[in-house]
């Protein structure tokens, strides 16, 4: 029987009360969903028990270390996680555990395990099943879909279909049968364990008339940010007159900050296409291609923690490591 390690980190699935709070939760899992013990030989560990809005870089590191240490002993891994930041954790682990050679499946629920009409049971059974199926990579399993971790985003707070993968097909669909649709070829390369992230990254969402000058002092302040993810319009355009967001980005780059551009829509960045996107390219911003905001934030944090010089960080950010981008 395959061996699967379930790492519990919190989230609605294991919460109770009003308002919902993380609950004491461990063997309850296997008691509430006995089916999963038929699929695999299970071990359940509580790594932490948090609303996922409190999960960040140091928790990603703990999870990555836990999986790295256990990688010889298990065939696959399931992480029970809150939905709010699940896509960040999935993206972060995609970079931290590159070419692990085993599946790491994150799941959670919109309604707690003990609630009527809960989606927790199905999601857990599906996730454990997927963790026994081999393959490599980090995925999010939710409502009958398996999505690539570095392509997934939380798209709905009310529906059971809480996640979407706007720029990539699902990795698998779990209906009557489990059908793998995207058999993403292995990128090649040996297992690379890099669990560190530098949290000094912020996101600026471009909006009409934004007070771009407001950020200028922040860029120059000591102990300030080292990375900026800019969520631009369309293919990567920004206002260049009044306000002049491209000039603001230029000052950030000059202050030593790496600027990675993603789009507020689905699709790819193309900094060459418009004058108002070239303006970003010309001041040294880096195209985030088709990366989700979650993939861009975590990859930038990962690049800053693991690559000392700016040029190698740029090369790292532009490369496709875990299937997170196909375009330059
Ligand atoms: N606030 C919860 C969390 O992310 C939401 C959920 O799990 O669905 O931890």
What can you see in these coordinates?
- The chain is of the alpha/beta class.
- It has two domains: 191 residues, Rossmann fold, CATH 3.40.50; 118 residues, Rossmann fold (3-Layer(aba) Sandwich).
- Helix content is 28%, strand content 23%.
- The chain contains ten helices and 18 strands.
- The strands form five sheets. It has an eight-stranded mixed sheet with strand order 4-1-5-7-8-9-12-13, sandwiched between helices. The protein has a four-stranded parallel sheet with strand order 15-16-17-18, sandwiched between helices. The chain has a two-stranded antiparallel sheet with strand order 2-3.
- Helix 7 links the parallel strand 16 and strand 17.
- The N and C termini lie far apart (42 Å).
- The protein binds aspartic acid.
- Aspartic acid binds next to loops.
- Aspartic acid (ASP) binds next to loops.
What labels describe this entry?
alpha/beta, 4-stranded parallel β-sheet, binds aspartic acid, 8-stranded mixed β-sheet, Rossmann fold, elongated, 328 residues, single chain, 2 domains
Strand count, sense and barrel status of the largest sheet are: 8 strands, mixed
Distance between the termini: 42 Å
- DSSP E strands, number: 18
Name the beta content range: 15-25%
Second rung of CATH, namely the architecture of the largest domain: 3-Layer(aba) Sandwich
Write the CATH homologous superfamily of the largest domain. Answer: L-asparaginase, N-terminal domain
Question: CATH topology of the largest domain, which one?
Answer: Rossmann fold
The ligands bound in this entry are: aspartic acid
Apparent shape: elongated
Rg estimate, integer Å: 20 Å
Give the quaternary arrangement of the chains.
single chain
Q: Give the total of domains.
A: 2
Global mean pLDDT: 92
Contiguous low-pLDDT stretches (5 residues minimum) are: none
Quick one: CATH class of the largest domain? Alpha Beta
Classification by helices and strands: alpha/beta
């Amino acid at each position: 029987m395959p061996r699967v390690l379930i790492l519990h980190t919190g989230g609605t699935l294991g919460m109770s009360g009003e308002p919902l709070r993380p609950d004491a939760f461990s063997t309850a899992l296997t008691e509430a969903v006995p089916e999963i013990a038929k699929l695999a030989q299970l071990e359940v560990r509580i790594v932490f028990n948090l609303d996922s809005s409190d999960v960040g870089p140091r928790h990603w590191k703990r999870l990555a270390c836990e999986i790295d240490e256990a990688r010889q002993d298990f065939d696959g891994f399931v992480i029970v996680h809150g939905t709010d930041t699940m896509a960040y954790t999935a993206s972060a682990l995609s970079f931290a555990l590159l070419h692990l050679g085993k599946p790491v499946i994150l799941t959670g629920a919109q309604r707690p395990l003990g609630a009527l009409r809960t989606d927790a049971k199905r999601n857990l059974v599906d996730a454990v099943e997927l963790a026994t199926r081999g393959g490599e990579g980090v995925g999010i399993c939710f409502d009958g879909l398996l999505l690539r971790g570095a392509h997934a985003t939380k798209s709905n707070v009310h529906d059971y279909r809480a996640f979407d993968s706007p720029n990539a097909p699902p990795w698998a669909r779990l209906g009557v049968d489990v059908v793998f649709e995207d058999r993403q070829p292995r990128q090649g390369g040996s297992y690379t364990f890099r669990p560190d992230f530098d949290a000094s990254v912020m996101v600026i969402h471009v909006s009409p008339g934004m007070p771009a000058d407001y950020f200028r002092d922040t860029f120059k302040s000591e102990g300030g940010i080292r990375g900026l993810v800019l969520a631009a319009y369309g293919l990567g355009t920004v206002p260049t007159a009044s306000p002049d967001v491209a000039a603001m980005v230029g000052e950030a780059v000059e202050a030593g900050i790496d600027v990675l551009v993603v789009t507020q829509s689905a699709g790819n960045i193309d900094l060459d296409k418009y004058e108002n996107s070239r303006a970003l390219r010309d001041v040294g911003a880096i195209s985030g291609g088709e990366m989700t905001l979650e993939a861009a934030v975590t990859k930038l944090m990962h690049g800053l923690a693991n690559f000392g010089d700016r040029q190698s960080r740029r090369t790292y950010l532009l490369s496709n490591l875990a299937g997170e981008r196909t375009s330059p």
